[in-house]
## 1
Amino acid sequence: MEKNKTGKYLKYAIGEIILVVIGILIALQINNWNENRKENIIENKILVEISKGLKEDLNDIKANMSAHRAGLKACEYYYNMLTNKEVKPDSINYYYGYLTRGYISIQNKSGYESLKSRGLEIIKDDSLRNNIIKLYEQDYPFIMKLEEQDPEGNFHDNYFKEINNHISPNLIFNNYGEIETIKLPLNVSEIEQKKMLSYLWKIKNDRIFILDTYSKVLENLMHLRSNLEEIKRKANKELS
């Protein structure tokens, strides 16, 4: 009898232990599921924020690229004017402003800052995480340096004053003090002409380099934005 009682007790005790272990495992699983769900929600919110920022960055990059292309046209206009080729004198108003104008790079980093504060590892996709880091830590700082910190890209300080010294005497202003046209041909010596042509060459090549850099950053941005939009579509599909 004692043996039977002991055996029954052991079976009961083992059964209770098994139930407790199963309960603990279920609780852990539920807790892990809840934690993963919370992390997924946070990850999706951050990715949506980054995607919105990229849309604004895209507009800024396209605007700067368009302005640099206008700067290249200004170089061509000034080159033709200095070499006595035919130009429209009343177009000087437009090109005068664009020749040496510089720009700033406006970057929306709030989404990326949120990601860094939460921890980069919250982005589970290694490739996606690396692309985000590359854009914000390499591409964006590089174009900012080109636009705002590179001495060679400071066209206004480097070239405006001297070029303007030779251009301004021929400018014609209207009654409102605005540039209306320019009297041609310019009265410049061969030495002055060559000096200004060398400035135009430098401005042109620096703007081309900046545009090439922008093109690569734009390609990376578009690729990342496409990935984020795909993730957003999948997330919405899972919720529906």
## 2
Amino acid sequence: MTALASAAPLRLWRQSTVVRHLTLSVLGLVVLYFVSTSLDAFANLQLAQVCYTAIATAGLTVLSGLSGQISLGHGAFVAVGAYTTALLLEHLQWPLALVLLGSVVVGGALGCLVGVAAARLRGPYLAGATLALAVGLPSLADYHGLRDLLGGANGLIVTPEPPPLSLGESFPLERWQAWICGLCLVITLFLLSNLASSKLGRDMRLVREDEQAAALSGVPVARTQIVTFGISAAFAGLAGGLFAIVNNLAAPGAFTLALSLSLLTAAVVGGLGSLAGAVYGAVLVTLLPNWTADLAQQANLPRAIYANIPLVLYGLVLIVVIVVFPGGIQSGVRKLGALLRRARPDRPQESRQET
């Protein structure tokens, strides 16, 4: 009786996807707490940057990995979220949770509009359309009719919200921002992981594999693609809102084409279609440029060479990762786990054979 009672939680863990994801989310929050309290101010700032980059990458990996739609313009949705947050804080002074929710809604609405056009495009045509969006949308901030509202080329200054007084007057702002971004990342991963195992997630995979077969199976292909694009853009909008809060700025120069390409790089290097891979990829594309710049600075090279060394090292590391792990970092982690399980002796089976 006692054995059955103790086995019940384990059985529930294995059978219920929501319970399993909820447990992992709680563990993630605990890890975030202990990691952030052990870091200094600059490291907490980097942790916050990793978290909001992982949020945008997770949305993109659902779009490209599950649904099979290519987007080279997700930086535009990040820009929309950042400007939405800046405008809501400046003009309406809403609570931070409502401001971030507003960025999610605006980003998702724009994503659905783009998704209507994306549902009619395929392959390079879709990639070219989203590329044009990444180049053109941030430049609207300097358009004559919107310059006063969006701040032109200088953008909008975002005043950071101080930590609650209940945490103490000397509580570090960077740690508070890391907590906010980390909480949003955990919520994002929880929602998207449950989405992937839902009926909509199964429809996405069917559409990715074969649109005609999916349509014959009763899957609404166009609607699935539009909804997927909207969901992906909504989380990019959330990442943009967090970007504005952490960096205290929403300016067109922060949302260049390089941002969109780095998000796609993070999704591919981490493992396209894997939410854990989105976190790995975000860590790599966020921290690697800083590490390579530090290495180049310590080498005492001439300035002309020093300026290009970080880009060279960054490219080399990405190439090595892609060559070693063609399916992304997450695929390498799975292979390593499989090898460890095979190498581990099967003790229960041996004991049964001995008896």
